[in-house]
């Protein structure tokens, strides 16, 4: 698929927004994992989810930056 400049800019903005949302969710997971009132299992799960969410956010920000630098979104799987 060929992306217009407008579509490319919108995709990069969307990826940044999604990365922000994932980062916020990771912070929430960290808070849950740090709360001793939560069960050990729940805390471990929240901590693991936070790690995954941070990785996804990082990947999305990298894709957004690459797209803004001229990489074709199709080459990145979009």
Helix/strand order, N-terminal first = HH
Would you report the number of β strands?
0
Extract low-pLDDT stretches: none
Number of helices: 2
Strand content: under 5%
Mean pLDDT: 97
Terminal CA distance: 9 Å
> Which word captures the global form?
elongated
The largest β sheet comes out as: none
The share of residues in helices is: over 70%
Rg value: 16 Å
- Helix/strand/pairing category: mainly alpha
Walk me through this protein's architecture.
With 78 residues, the chain is mainly α. The chain has two helices and no strands. It has helices at 5-34, 40-68. Helix content is 76%, strand content 0%. α1 (5-34) packs antiparallel against α2. The longest helix has 30 residues, at 5-34.
Describe the structure using short key phrases.
0% strand, mainly alpha, 78 residues, elongated, 2 helices
Q: How is the topology of this model organized?
A:
Layout: H1 5-34, H2 40-68
Helix pairs in contact: 1-2
Q: TL;DR of this structure?
A:
The chain has 78 residues and is mostly helical. Helices cover 76% and strands 0% of the residues. Helix 1 runs antiparallel to helix 2 (40-68).
